[in-house]
Amino acid sequence: MRKLYKMLLACAVAGTLTACGTQTGAPQGAADPTEAAGETGGAEAEKASEGDGAITLYLVRHGKTFLNTTDQVQGWIDSPLTEKGESQADAVGRGMKDIRFVSAFSSDLGRQRETALRILAQNAGPAPELREVIGLREWFYGGYEGKMNAEMWDPIFEAHGLKFDAEWSQYGELLKQMTDEDIANAIAANDALKQAETYDQITKRTIEAMDEIVKVTQEAGGGNALVVSSGSEIPTILELVVPGQYKGEDISNCSVSVLTYKDGVYTLETCGDTSYLEAGKTEEEKKQEAEAAKTAAAEPEETGKEALATGEILIPSARGTEIHATFTVPETIGENGCPLVLFAHGFMGSRDESGEFTAVADGLAERGIASMRIDFPGCNESTESFLEYNFKNMSDDLDAALAYAREAVKVDESRLGILGYSMGGRLASLYLDKEAFHTAVLWAPAASNGFDAASAMGTAAEMEEQLKKSQTDGKGVIHIWDEDIEVGAEYLQELKEGKPLEQLAAYTGNLLVVTGGIDDTVVKSITDQVLETAANTSITANLNIPRAGHGLGGYEGDQEVVKVVVDATVNFFDDNLN
Predict the structure, then answer these.
(1) Which of 13, 97, 374, 444 lies 20 to 30 Å from 517, alpha-carbon distance?
(2) Whole-angstrom Cα distance, residue 54 to residue 170?
(3) What is the mean pLDDT of the chain?
(4) How far is CA 146 from CA 68, 253, 315, 432, in A?
(5) Is the CB of residue 519 less than 8 Å from the CB of residue 533?
(6) Interval 7-40: pLDDT, tens
(7) Residue 62 annotated as catalytic
(8) What is the pLDDT of residue 303?
(9) Which UniProt keywords are listed (predicted)?
(10) Is there a catalytic annotation at residue 138?
């Protein structure tokens, strides 16, 4: 289904275009596309055709990307081709190797550009220079870029009396009620940032792109043109130049749609054709696919998943950056999937947390429990500025990490857990209502409401002063562990407004709170509030270690305390998730 691919695109870029080749500010108003569209698809196309031969446009959708596999919104942000996506691009290139291209086009998005270059590299003839035409970009989804598809689509489905689900089971019903124009404009209207493109904006730059493609190809004497774009943009092109002929056919990764153009008129020859892709596959690829199909027939619940890496990995974020992560999985995973624990490290910490997080992850794997640990913005291996360390960005990164894990292995959704340390304990508490976490473990959680949780960073008055300063300067300064540390305005604002105790009060799962008797960073008055508030849990346990400071042994080098903390955490998850 074509629309499915529209939903499976993703990422965030703040910018748009003027004419066909320049990127500037945010999307501006667009002219009425009907003034330029029609038989010719634009004035330039009509002009270029005069006295010139026919051209044939081979519209190819890019190869599969990481975000195509994780059900995230992908428009202008760049997600690299997966190994499968690279193989697809090479295969369709081999399938088209005898077609002599006189021109070649993609947008500036990396996934389109790499697909085009791989196709040209397989061609038997001389390869034309690849021209980047910004108007060939995928639709821009504004504030939804990089989010889970459900966040963008739930309100649209609900507005039409339908329910969005992972199988898109009611999407056909939605299409009976909405056109592409309706859908694009609904996304733009719902976008909180008001940056998503309207249908007029999309069609305006699409028409300009087609004008440029026709002009360049005609100037080359006519012939075959390679055009690589994306899963929503290709149908938009078809609907503009051959109105009514596109019937919602599946525009899958590396499928080919062919248009001919002569005497100012476009004709649709094929749509979503995968024969070039199939023809270019190697014997080994065909053999692997046959074996996979056999396995899928025997185990239908395991179909449709492309193998993703475990261990040390990089995950695309909603901001277009890379999240450094460690994904640890057990040696064997049962028929119903495995439990999964999400880790959230502390302020200026890391996904290893002095080795304690690593030890817990290893212990969980031995008990058949998978885990995902990530570095938050500005921490450890992250390449972002620490000014990007805030609760929204961290929550978004947990979303992306969880999506990756779900795609990589079969996760038992009834056995989800979360572990948060210090400020990560605050984040984990705030995150409790986003997923059905069966079990939570909080180490020294800074999880009281407002600035009270950050008393080690300054008094409430000092924090208010830095918040006020940050609203002008974009950053403030907090003092902790004998250091002055710059933090972003968003962090201070979210710290003040955050109410993790509300999530803890509503939590009904199993909770373990680990505290240190001599912790002078997250003091007893803070953790007592956590224990008192969590009154609706199935189990609430408190492990207090009298001689432990805020580092719970790890940062103090007390291996006896480390062993107590790690063993208690692993056992609590094991007892409640297995």
Answers:
(1) 374
(2) 41
(3) 85
(4) 11, 19, 11, 21
(5) no
(6) 222 232 223 222 333 332 333 233 333 333 333 3
(7) yes
(8) 38
(9) Hydrolase, Signal
(10) yes
Domains of the chain: 2-279 (3.40.50.1240), 311-449+498-577 (3.40.50.1820), 452-496 (no CATH)
Backbone angles phi, psi at 344, to 5 degrees: -130, 110
Residue of 44, 46, 114, 138 marked catalytic: 138
- How far apart (Å, rounded) are the C-alpha atoms in residues 241 and 260? 11
* Assessment of whether the complete model's pTM goes beyond 0.85: no
Over 50: is that where the pLDDT of 3 sits? no
The per-residue pLDDT for range 42-76, each reduced to its tens digit, is: 433 334 333 457 999 999 999 998 777 767 789 99
The predicted structure's pLDDT at residue 289: 74
| Residue 342 one-letter amino acid | L
| Strand 16-18 to 22-24 pairing | antiparallel
Please give the pLDDT value at position 481: 85
Strand runs labelled E in 389-538: 411-421, 437-443, 475-480, 483-488, 510-516
Section 555-572 average pLDDT = 91
**What tokens were used for 392?**
């929204």
Binding residue positions for substrate: 61-68, 111, 138-141
d(CA 262, CA 220): 15
Q: Which residues are annotated as a binding site?
A: 61-68, 111, 138-141
Answer yes or no: is pLDDT of 573 > 60. Answer: yes
Start-to-end CA span in the chain (Å): 38
